[in-house]
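re: that complex we talked abt at group meeting.

here r the seqs, copy pasted straight from the sheet so there may be weird spacing, ignore it
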Amino acid sequence: MSKRITIKDIAKMSGVGVGTVSRVLNGGSVKPETRKVVMNAIKKLGYTPNVSARRLAGGKTMSILVLTPEIRTEFHWRLLESIDKTLDALDYQTVIYPVISQNRYNRLFNSNLFYEFDGVILCTLTYKKMFKKTPDFPVLILEDCEDKHDCVFLDNYYGGVLAAETLLERNIRNLYALYYDETSPLLSNENIIKRLEGFKDRLKEEDISFETDQLINADFFYGRPHERIIQILKTVERPGIFATTDNFAMNVLETAATLGKVPGKDFFIVGYDNQTWTERLELTTIKQPIEEMGEMASKLIVERIKNPELPVRHVKFQPSILRRKSA
Amino acid sequence: MSKRITIKDIAKMSGVGVGTVSRVLNGGSVKPETRKVVMNAIKKLGYTPNVSARRLAGGKTMSILVLTPEIRTEFHWRLLESIDKTLDALDYQTVIYPVISQNRYNRLFNSNLFYEFDGVILCTLTYKKMFKKTPDFPVLILEDCEDKHDCVFLDNYYGGVLAAETLLERNIRNLYALYYDETSPLLSNENIIKRLEGFKDRLKEEDISFETDQLINADFFYGRPHERIIQILKTVERPGIFATTDNFAMNVLETAATLGKVPGKDFFIVGYDNQTWTERLELTTIKQPIEEMGEMASKLIVERIKNPELPVRHVKFQPSILRRKSA
DNA sequence: CTGAAAGCGCTTACAG
DNA sequence: CTGAAAGCGCTTACAG
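got the structure back, here u go
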C-alpha cells in the first residue's frame, strides 16, 4: 500500500545487481565485503523481502504452515511459541492456520494454501482425520504418529505409568481415573487413552484390579461439581485419583476445597500437563518437555525440506513426574 | 510442489487468452458464453488461483488478515467462523494471525505481512496497544472503538444495565459483582469495566448503594473456590451476583452446588456471554449477537477496501438478557 | 468483449 | 564472485 522497498532499491544503493542481493539474502556465495555493503543497505532501508514474490519465483518460501486446533491453552501457546522462535532463528516464517471448524478445514483443502509453504507442521491434530491421502509436501506430525512422516510425540503411555507409580508409592489402593470420551471430527482422544493404558497396565503388574466403575468419564465436568467425585471424597478412605488432564484435576481440587478435604492428606491426585496454575495449588502432575518438542519439530521439518531424501524420523519424548503436595 | 494448474491451462482449454480468464475470475466484462466455457474449464481442472501471483500482480489480494488473541473460546470461534463465512461468500480469503505473545506481535510488525492483505480486522485486541501510529491500510476494529476507523462493538455498558435490572426485578438488594483486573500488554479489560459501570449506574438510579466490598476481584478464581463467595453464599440472604463473564459464574455455580445452594432460590446470578454450557446449567446471562457482529465487520471492511473514501462508520450492537432459572 | 504485452518482486541457471 | 536475463502466475491498461 505505501511504497515498498524492493530488492532493486537495495541493489541500487549497494551498487550491485539484484542477483547479488538475492544471493546475500539466500546464502549464496558472495564476497564478504560485498555482503557487508548489501547488509548495510538492507538495514538502513529497513528492507524485508516480499514473500509473495519469493513464493512465485519458485524458490523456497521460507515459511511453514502450522495447523492447530487451539492457541490459548498453555500447552498450545507454549508449543507454538517454541516453534515460532525456533523457525525464526532458522529464517523461516511461521503461519498458523487454526482449524477450528469443519468450515475452516474445508477451505484449507479447497485452497492452494499448502503449496504456498515449504512444509507443514500438524500440531495436535489427528493425522488420519486430517489427510485422506498422503500429502505430497513435507509434513511433520506433532503429538501423533504415522509411519510415512517425521513425528515428534510424547510417550503418553509412560506418563500413565508414572502416575500409577506415584500413587502406589504412597501406598494408595483405592484408585480412580478421570478421562473423557469425546468424539470430534478432527481430534481424537487417543493420547488420553494411552495415558490410561499405561496407568492400568502398571496397576496390573502389581496385581491391583481396576474395574470399570473406577474409571470416571469427565466430559460433563464443566460448571458443575461431579457427583461421583463428591461421593468418593466423602466416603472413600485415602482415594487416589489420576486426572488424565490437569483441567479435570482442577475441578476435583475445587470440589474438595469446598468440602474441606485436603489434597495429599484426605485424598491424593496426580494431574497431567503441568499447567501454570498447578504449582500454586501444589498439584502433583506429569510434565511434558513442551519447548523441546516444539524445537525438535521445527528442526526436523526444516531438515526434511532441505533434504527430502532423509529417512523418516520418529522422536519420542519422555514425560516426568513433578511431585508436589497432592500426591 | 506437484504440478499446479495455472491460468494458462484454463486459457488453453477454453480457447481464450489468459486476460479473459482473469477477467471472468475478477468480474470484468466478459461475454456470457465465454464466461460459461471458462467456468467449465475451471471446474473441470479444479483450478484455484495462485494467491502469491495475485498479490504480486498488484491486484487485490482478496484476502484479509484477522488479528486475534484467541481462537477457542466460544465467543472467539463463533466470531471467527462468522467472519470466515461472510468473507468467503464475498470471495475473500481469511487469514488468522494469532497474537499470542510479545514475540508474535514483534514479528508481525517487523514483517511485510500487513501489505500482503487488502485489509485487517482487529478482533478483540486493544487498538491503542496494537498500533502506535495510525496504519495506512484499511483496518476494522472489532470490540473496541477508535475515531479514525470503522468499528463494530457491543454496548457493554448497556449489558451491565440489563444485569442490574434483572436482579432488581427479582427484588434482590444484596448485590455483588465479579470482575477481574488484569493488565496485559495487548489486551485491556475495558469492556468489563464498562459492564460494571452500567451495572453500578443503574443501581444508583434506584438509590441503591454499591460499595467497594461488594466488588469482588476474581482474578484468582481458577482452580479454587473463592472464599468470599463461600462466605456470601453461606451467610447473606438472597444475594444477587453479577458475573461480568460466564466463566466467573461457572465457578460460583460449582461452589454453590457443592454447598447445596440452589441458584434462583438461595441465591441469584447473572452471567455475561451466553456460553454454550450456560443453557444446560440454566444460567441467566447477557447475550451478544456474535454472528451478526462478525458479519457486519466483514461487510464493512470489504466496503472500505472497495471505497476508501467512505465516511468512517461505528456500529454498536445491543446485548439482550437471556432469562433462565438463576435469576 | 478480448488478445497481446508489460510489469509486480523475486530466484536461479547462464555466462563471464 | 557477479551481472543480465528469463521466468514464476497473475492483473491491467492498451489496442483493437
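couple things i noticed - Chain A touches chain B through 56 residues (CB under 8 Å). The mean pLDDT of chain A is 90.
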